[in-house]
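Supplementary Note 3. Input sequence used for the single-chain structure prediction.
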Amino acid sequence: MKSDVNGPARRRLLRPAALAVAALVAIGAAACTDNSPDAGGTAGKAGDAVKKRTVGPGKPESDKKIPQLKVGILGQVPTLNLKKGIGAGLYTNTLGLESLLRVGPGGELEPWLATSWKQTSDTVYEYTLREGVKFSDGTPFTSADVKYSWDFYRDQGSRRSHYYANVDHIETPDEHTVKVILKSPTASFKYTPAMFWSVIFQKKFAQAHPKDFGQPGTLLVATGPWKFDSLNPTSGMELSANPYYWGGKPPIEKISVKSYADDNSMALAMRSGEIDLSPGIGSPKGFSATAGKNTVTTVATCATTFLSMPTKTAPWDDIHVRRAAAYAIDRKAVIASTQGRAGAPLNTLISPLLLDPLGSKDEVDKALGTVPVYEHSVAKAKAELKKSKVPNGFKDTYVSPTSIAATGEVIVDQLKKIGINLKLQKVADSAFAARATGPADQRPVTASETGACSPDPSWDAIFLGKANTAKGGLNIANYTPPEVDKLLADGLATQEPKKRLQIYTDLLKRLGEDVPYVPLYAEGNHYASPKYDIAGYDSYWMNSPWALNVVPK
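The predicted structure, written as discrete structure tokens, is reproduced below.
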């Protein structure tokens, strides 16, 4: 599998039909701030240590002048062309490339390059563009650039095409209006214009450079606060303030980005003053120990980590075996094994954060209260196993990437206590994706981290449904009840939030009863800096120009 990003946690990305997803790969981490799970953190909720973004679109959170911000990233940026693999560019490209909307902290949509938007029918979305916006070369930004950019991503062979699979065509009635016509109702599409795979570049420049667009030496032209000055795939990139930026000249004059092979080398660079900030790290505890105390901040996200069991392979095809495993899991011990990489405990495959836009807090809490939860209990685990076809236990293999073997060891040890004896098989990270998403009837008992997430509950459909059992699909549990496929389809086709909340509640109930997956924890995002904080650092921080949110500590 090709990797889309080598950023936080050194995640190896898979490419499902709906969203790029990461397999578990790195061990790491403890937040130096007190918003860790052990400190009472809530899944998906930022701790008090993370400042909120308080300013309007395009505005910097702080006016403090910074001549040069030195940024460190894990991995390399091979290209600025999102049609291809962008590597660690996931965390740097939005410094210069902007989307029409952004996602707020509660999953709500907010204006950016578009000032307003509306859904005129079940299949038509209309966007009114911000007037007066210019590209970094001083030329006007228009609807033609939006259409060209999105058609470019939709094109066959693009690594972004699956995000636009249900788009029939795009219209531009005038220079400041864009209309997207879908083939069929898809409620989750409303978030597409706010995500990193929808950022806009200049049509004229792209057409003038059809062969080397986005490549080092050519780059691209965009509207963001900073313009791309240079790109070296092996070492990093340089950016400078866009003099034509519609939000006003950014207070950070230059941004220098340097690539690092691992957390340790990046932490040493921070300690020596070579870099000021890293927006994404993989091993917070080790990083903090090397770079110095009070450098790392962790926030729980909407991304989830879960234990997967092959539901059509004996003895895991026995529901009592899967329920026994669910009761046997002690989430606190699992989270401790991640050394802080985890954000908070989690009991549902779909993060509660993704349900927030569908109802009030009371409505969402009431819905989640009806979902079966398996709290740790060895006694209940043994009782469930006694009901199964293997009451005295059994042997099998647990497959884990080598980099997270410590977490695998904890899970194997917990299941052993109830008679499920698993042999831990370590697989190189590079080979794990092929193993976990190979032939459906050969998918192993394993655990997966999901990586970057979209702010809609339909996002977790990538782990479910018949279609995702195909080779490369992420239905690792090979779980395919027809009723689940229907719920997934209804969730996308239904527009009314309260009805969608009921649909996804019904889906979670079914998952709680059948237990193809055991949710473990909400993943954490981690940034590090002895000098600065990133306001608004949450599940979706990388989708907009995050350096506008940099504030002195």
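The first strand starts at residue 12 and ends at 14. The radius of gyration is 23 Å.
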